[in-house]
Amino acid sequence: MSTIEDFLQKHSLCCFCGGTEPASTIDCQPAKIVFPDKPPPQAAEFPTCAGCNDQTSADEALLAPVCRYVSSPRHDLAPDFEPLRGTFTIVRQRFPGLLERMDQGKVWIQQRGRLVRQSAIDVNQPEVRESMCRVAAKLALALYYQNKGTPAATTCRIKTLWSNRQTLNTFQQVTNLIRVLPQQANSKMGMWKSDESFFLTYLSDGGRLASMSIFREAVALIALLEEGPFQAEDNERWDFVMAPVAKSGISVVRVLQHEA
Question: Which of 38, 52, 59, 150 has the smallest number of CB atoms closer than 10 Å to its CB?
C-alpha cells in the first residue's frame, strides 16, 4: 500500500479547486463520516489541498443525519442515532441553529391502525440544499479526475440537484434515472457500490459527465459537469450551478431552481 507521500508524488494537484493548488493530503470519496454506524463502502482516494478537504467536511457530516432523518419515520430512537453523536457535534459547530430549525416538534401520525405522536424533521432547509449540492459537485469532480486523470478546470460548470424521500415527486424522477443511466452504451457503474448504503452510477461522454449517488436509499445527489459550451437554458430543474475555484474550492456560481 502506497504511503501518502508516494500518492502525492503521483497526484500533485488538488482535484477539487481546478488543479490550481498543490495537493497536501488524501480525500476519500464517498466520505467515511457518512457511514458512522457500519463499515463504509469501498472508497477511492483523491488528491486534495487542506482548504478543499476542510470545506466539505461539515457538508459530509450533515449528510449522515439527513439520510437517517428521511429513511426512518422517527429521529429519536437512541440505538439508531447514537452512532451519529460525532456528526451532530460537527453540524452544531458549523451550522449553528440548523438542527433546531429542522425540528418541527411532535406530530400525530397513523401507525398500525392507531394514532401515535412522533417527532417530525424537515430536512428541506436552504443550508441543507446548498450543502448536499456541494457534496454532489465534489463527487462529480472526483469522477472526472478518475476518468480523465487530470483535475477539471476552473472554467467547467457543475449543475447540481438533490432530492430525498420527503420530496416524493422528485424522488420518483430519481428512480426513473437509475433505470435509464446504466442502459446507455457508454455508461459505467462506479466502483463504489454497497447495496442499501451507497449506490453510484455515472455517464461520461466527451466534455460532459453526469453522476447520481444514492445514500441509504433515501437521499439522491445529482450533478452534471460540463467543460463547455454551457447551455443558457435547460428544461431540467437544477438547484445550483457550481464550479471549482482557485483558493476557494467548490463555489456557487448561480442559484437556479429557487431564484427569487
Answer: 38
Give one DSSP letter per residue of 1-52, joined into a string.
---HHHHHHHS-B-TTTTT-SB--EEEEES-GGG-TTSPPPP-EEEEE-HHH
What pLDDT is stored for residue 43 in this prediction?
A: 73
Instruction: Please determine, for residue 76, whether its predicted confidence score (pLDDT) is greater than 50.
Output: no
Residue keyed to cell 457508454: 186
**Residue 218 in grid coordinates:** 433515501
Task: Annotate 117-130 with DSSP letters as a single string.
Answer: EEEEE----HHHHH
The answer to whether 133 and 162 are in contact (CB under 8 A) is yes
Which residues share a beta bridge with 45? 28
Residue 142's CB: how many other CB atoms inside 10 A? 25
As a dihedral over the C-alpha atoms of residue 22, residue 26, residue 29, residue 33, rounded to 10 degrees, the angle is -130
Q: How far apart are CA 125 and CA 113, in angstroms?
A: 31
